[in-house]
Amino acid sequence: MRPLLAVSTAIDWLNEKIGNVCNVLVLAACLVSAVNAMIRYAFSYSSNSWLETQWYMFAVIVMFGSSYTFKRNEHVRVEIIYLMLSERGQLWLDLIGTLVFLVPACLLLSYLSWAMFYNSIIIGEMSNNAGGLLRWPIKFVLTSGFFMVALQGVSEAIKRIAALRGEVTIEAKYERPTQ
């Protein structure tokens, strides 16, 4: 189990670094948006490339931020059932949901979006807007973002298996309701 936990730690480290980049991108997107708005109103000048840059940054934040959010166990879940389960039941539910639903779905979406990315890079696809940006980099974000969520799912599954075996503890993010 130790080698798998080392793999899990490496995946967690990678998604932590990606999350730090996403945190900076939130500020950068706000600054680009504010400067673009000021220039548009002060000088009656606007650029589609700056608008698309904002969209691209937002897409990176969403696609890569989701694996970071999953790593931090701050994702959305249906707590009504989850909180009624014992700690061991929660671990089993997390493990089954991750392996049966999350990882296969994210790998499938990553695989299906690869063709879209590949075709875009082959034809050198550009935005239809005047001054627009290349499209393939953002399509790669889609492919790799789904892959990173699947990778984080593997990390979480490893940790849940280790916790079920009593080798590690998982930090509880949710408090049980008191009765």
TrEMBL record:
User: Per the record, GO CC terms?
Assistant: plasma membrane
Asked if Transport is a keyword of the record, the answer is yes
Q: Where are the transmembrane segments?
A: 21-43, 55-70, 91-116, 136-155
Annotated Tripartite ATP-independent periplasmic transporters DctQ component domain ranges read: 30-161
Tell me where in or outside the cell this protein is found.
Cell inner membrane
Q: Name one Pfam family in it.
A: DctQ
For whether the record's keyword set contains Cell inner membrane, the answer is yes
Query: Tell me, what is one Gene Ontology molecular-function annotation carried by this entry?
Result: transmembrane transporter activity
**What is the topology of this protein in the membrane according to its UniProt annotation?**
Multi-pass membrane protein
* Keywords (A to Z) from UniProt: Cell inner membrane, Cell membrane, Membrane, Transmembrane, Transmembrane helix, Transport
What this chain does, per the record?
Part of the tripartite ATP-independent periplasmic (TRAP) transport system.
* Family that this chain belongs to: Belongs to the TRAP transporter small permease family.
Listed under subunit, the entry gives: The complex comprises the extracytoplasmic solute receptor protein and the two transmembrane proteins.
Name used for this protein in its record = TRAP transporter small permease protein
Q: Which organism is it from?
A: Bradyrhizobium frederickii
